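Homework-ish question, so no full write-ups if that breaks the rules, but can someone show me the predicted structure for this set?
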Amino acid sequence: MTDSLLGKYAIFVIPAYVLTIMVFAGLTLLIGRRLRHWSKLAKKREAVKDLQ
Amino acid sequence: MKLPVAAVFKRDLDLAWLGGAGAAAPLGFFVGATVLVPLAIGADSKLLSSIGPPLLWVTAALAALMTLERVFQADLEDGALDQMLLARAPFEALVFAKGAAAWVAVGCAIALACAPLALTMQMSIQVVPIIVIDMAIGMIAFFFTGLLAAALAAGVRRAGVLIALLVLPFYAPPIIFGAAATAAAARGEGLFTAPFLMLCGCALGAVALGPIGAAAAARLQTE
Amino acid sequence: MKQKAKGAMISYLANPQRFMRISELVLPFVAMIATLLLVIGLTWGFVFSPEDATQHQSVRIMYVHVPASMWSLSIYAFMAVASLISVVWRHALADVAARCAAQIGVAYAGLCLVTGSLWGAPTWGTWWAWDARLTSMLLLFITYVGYLALWSTIEDEVKAARLAAILCMAGAINLPIIHFSAEWWNTLHQPSSLRLSGSTVHPAMLRPLLMCITAYGFVFLALLLAAMRADIYRRRALAPSRSRA
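A: Not a homework solution, just the prediction itself:
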């Protein structure tokens, strides 16, 4: 529907939106993974420290 | 005993002119790169006179960039920077002296080399002194902003690429105004055009702030 | 003004422990609001906003492009404030904030450049014009890249943080000069037909635009908090056993 609505501009508008969503998704994935990874390591280390 | 500022100035000047390929390498690069372009694009004198001013500015900026890597790195390696921190003079003033020495040794040499190159670019002889002055002032901006990038990257091995990246945004304003001032001079508008005054502003700002930032960065490098 | 408020907030949260406590509570809400606003804003812009009289459907790119351009500048200003705090008061958290903000800012600036190019192709008939705004944005992008490159090439993190703060503040002085010189240079070289006019935006387009601007801001905030939390965890995990970040 939107495709016919956008007409000849679709090839510019759609990539712009797709790219935007991809950038946000990419940043979220990247930072989210980093957050999970380091929080796990930091907590593991704290647990070891508590044992000592 | 000599003034520390004068001592640093003289030492850097001596290193540039006496030691190996100090000032000769960027000068050679500047002349070589500029001479290659007419060979590549042909001898059309109209084309050459229109690309002449911007071409000289681009190659001069690159030649100045070439020298930055060693400005602080050598002093950091041989401990001269630590000595400078102990000197009885503000470190900022000594860093300023380093920039001034680089400007005199390399910047002024490049500016003077502009004279024959401008002639080969089909510019009229009356314009040549103006181009030399433009370039000399542009070099102040290039070296004193470059000082900051050089100090930031002093501890990094093979810092050339990093310095080029850091310095690029700082070279944009002087290269815009410098090329415009030279182009205006080539059109016969004389020395004191609006872009020339703005170029002077860039140079002044770089001289005022560059050594402060560079000194702060260089101080961290010695820690 | 907003940056100042944020700067004050950072200095209040300067204690990493306190920051971790508060950000843990705040982050889920901010992330939720960001997602919600972004979905609303993008849908509004893509589907429900009106067509422009002169730019037709290509005006829809404005909703993804303009917020990216505005925020990439604001993020740099935020970084400059954080760098100032880091240099003056030596807050470790300000360094973390500046670095994490730069990682998001460079993405915003890159997004702005690419969407701007996609917008320029149908409206100006060219993918790239050396327009004043495009030129300043390109140099802002390079400034971001240089800043991050400096961070990643210096191994000693404390030193890297202080050097990056100096660079960031120098860049903050330089960027207005770049903007001015590009503006001036543009009037010199650019045929006026290509120049962007500062025309007013119709209210029917302004509302989705404002929505997108707000959404991008919340996305930045959410990503910043998450990235900062990750960085503080990383410092804790890697710190020598005596001190806890």
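Now go work out the reasoning yourself. Hint: DSSP finds seven helices and no strands in chain C.
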